[in-house]
Amino acid sequence: MRFLNSSFKWLVLFFALLGIISSVVYSHYLSGMLADDERKHVATWVEAQRTILQSSDSASITLATHLSVQNTRIPIIETTEKDSITGNYLNLDSSAVLADPNYLKKQLQAFKKYQPNPIILVLKEQPFTANYYYYGKSSLLDEISWYPIIQLLIAFLFIAITIASVRYMYKSEQNQLWVSLAKETAHQLGTPVSNLQAWVELMKEQPQNEVLANEINKDVNRLQLVTDRFGKIGNAPHLEQAFPAQRVEEVVDYMKRRMGGQVTIACNIANLESVSTLLSAPLFDWVIENLLKNALDALEGKGTITITGFQTQQSIILDITDSGKGMDLKAVDRVFETGFTTKKRGWGIGLALTKRIIEQYHKGKISIRWTEPGKGSCFRIELPVISEV
To answer: Residue 266 to residues 256, 263, 374: CA-CA distances in angstroms?
Structure first.
């Protein structure tokens, strides 16, 4: 699914870029065609001026006058053969001309940059007398010039919306899949856990089994807690004021009794004991458990896990650091994705659910503070502070 999603994005991008390039090339072609056509219109207009000035035939003058007034789009400035502005112009803002004595000069410079070769109307050969006609872009040509840029912006907007929609649908499908899986798991665990609880109660009735029954009961209660956690996935959790440091210490105590003797867990968060926030205790415990289990897997039976914390003005910061095998950049980029795992038998849902619990349910943040292959990793949790006791 990830491959198809990535391929679809590249396919959309390819066709969008193909369309943009084709549009730019075609727009450039149209601009060139229109520029040539406008020069011909200006030449026709100049020829009409020649007829008006030099012809004595009334029919020719009438036709020339008709052609002359047809140009309503192309701006023109008339100069002498020495490039002195005569004061005659066409399709320019007359109010701007009156308000700014240099307006025509500025426009003339712009016209020369656009089309340095004027159209010449020779009035007299000896001495040489002529009018030069410089012209600029029409409004239509300007609009065509802007068209590729506008289309480019629209295309990028289309690409962004399409990719965002695909990502949203993909995440929604993934979330729905894992929520359904979690709820079905909780449902399937419910009956055997209840039966185990009943068997534990029967064992307690025999005094010689009391110690064993109590130990088994702890693990059965743990199974019940896991079942409750899975059942809460997909539902809005009930948050209560709690102390994260206390929750972390309880999970660490539980994990210490069930890990190898060559692994050491150091919990240095006494400075956070009086700092509280809103928590769903079962789900937050699950987060710490997941991170500790991942750290234990990274240690491969030997090493150190250190939990440290501090408080800022707005957040509670918890860092869980291990001296394990660390991660490469590829794993870092995908570590919180649903289905991604570096374990041979992993499902790739632990860290994805951890991120969901912290960021969606508790409005916090979880990230990899640092990691280095062969030296270990550090995960950071940030939770909002609500009060101090």
So the answer is: 10, 10, 20
